[in-house]
Amino acid sequence: MFYLLCPNMKKKITKEMIRVMELWKKNNGACTFDYKNREIILYDGGLFSIEKSKRKARKIVGYKELPNGMSKLIFSKTKSVWTEDYKAILWIEELDETISYLKKMKNMLNNLGIDTNHFKKQNK
């Protein structure tokens, strides 16, 4: 059994819930569920495309403590290093389809009793 921790409750994910999620994944595709870490993993090419590019960035040489307890990065003025940047590209024409896909996933999880709302609802 896996445990899914919600902000306001501890919900046990049963084998039946896993079966329903796997069936949903088989019918809809484009993702997998990581039950232990409470993650939905979306892959490149399913709902969007991920592009990787390289660029030069200034090298971090240290940190400076600030009076308020925070720290500030100190960058080198002359040295630079190659870094990798990632972009997720979502096609404008498929925006409604992507929103519909995510809403169907949310409804399936809510029907299983898994709370997808991170924030507590306020009583008015």
Written description of the protein model:
Strand 3 and strand 4 form a beta hairpin. This protein is α+β, with helices and mostly antiparallel strands and 124 residues long. A two-stranded antiparallel sheet has the order 1-2. A two-stranded antiparallel ribbon has the order 3-4. Strands 5-6 form a two-stranded antiparallel ribbon. The protein folds into two domains: 1-48 and 92-115, no CATH class; 50-89, no CATH class. The chain is 25% helix and 42% strand. The protein starts with a strand and ends in a 13-residue tail after the last helix.
SSE order and pairing:
Blueprint: E1 2-5, E2 10-13, H1 15-28, E3 31-34, E4 39-42, E5 49-65, E6 71-89, H2 95-111
Distance between the termini: 37 Å
Mean pLDDT: 82
Helix-strand makeup class: alpha+beta
- Give me the number of helical elements: 2
Strand order of the largest sheet: 1-2
Which key phrases capture this entry?
two-stranded antiparallel ribbon, 6 strands, 25% helix, 42% strand, disordered N terminus
What would a concise description of this structure say?
The chain is of the alpha+beta class and 124 residues long. The protein is 25% helix and 42% strand. The chain has helices at residues 15-28, 95-111; strands spanning 2-5, 10-13, 31-34, 39-42, 49-65, 71-89.
